[in-house]
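**User:** Everyone, produce a chain:

**Assistant:**
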Amino acid sequence: MLAPLLAIAPNTGAAQAIPAVPAPVRYSIRMGDAVVFGAAGLVGAVPTLAGTRLPYARCAPCDSTRLWPLDRRTIGLPREGVSMGSTLVMGATFAGAGALIALSRRGEPAAGTAAWEDLAILAEAVEIDELATQWAKVLFHRARPVLYTSAASQNPTVDAGRSFPSGHASFAFASAAAAASILQRRHELGRHKVEVVLLFAGATATSVLRVAAHKHFPTDVVAGAVLGTAVGWVLPQLHHVH
């Protein structure tokens, strides 16, 4: 009668299998990253430092009939208060992206070091995006909206002659996309969907405000959004992890 009972009794002497908890994904930051970061910063600064030695739109006023109808309807004099608002929203989007990826490391082993690694990847992504944006401005050397107005002769600057793509939109979307990409690489994007949506909302608001401020045309901000999202998403996906 004891045999059936012994057959179904638990084997308390056997080792119980404990599910292995996968180690958190960590980015590997190497000396080469510092070189890339420094080089990207220098190359990205060249268009600004070179000034008039590189192409920029010189028309004053420019011919508005050459614009797409959508862009033509947004011509106007700059609104500096709205422009400042777009800069503040852009900065808040970048700061929010950094806070999100850093604070989401809480509770992990070596959380502080892991957070700094993630922030380094975020910084690298937005800097490379800035490099791409600045050289795209030189390549297309498109006039800003103010150069299509009666105030064109008062704004014959290099900056006014490099509108496409929007740097604000590109930077904001690169920040949001990089944060989303980092979280996806760590398999944590699903846990932070609301926060990521808010980051993209901030990037969108930045873009809308750039058009409302008459600093950019709609096509400028769309191009900036596409460029920033592409760079921000791809770079964290390519970076080595351990």
Notes: The helical segments are 2-8, 31-50, 69-72, 80-103, 111-140, 167-185, 193-212, 218-238.
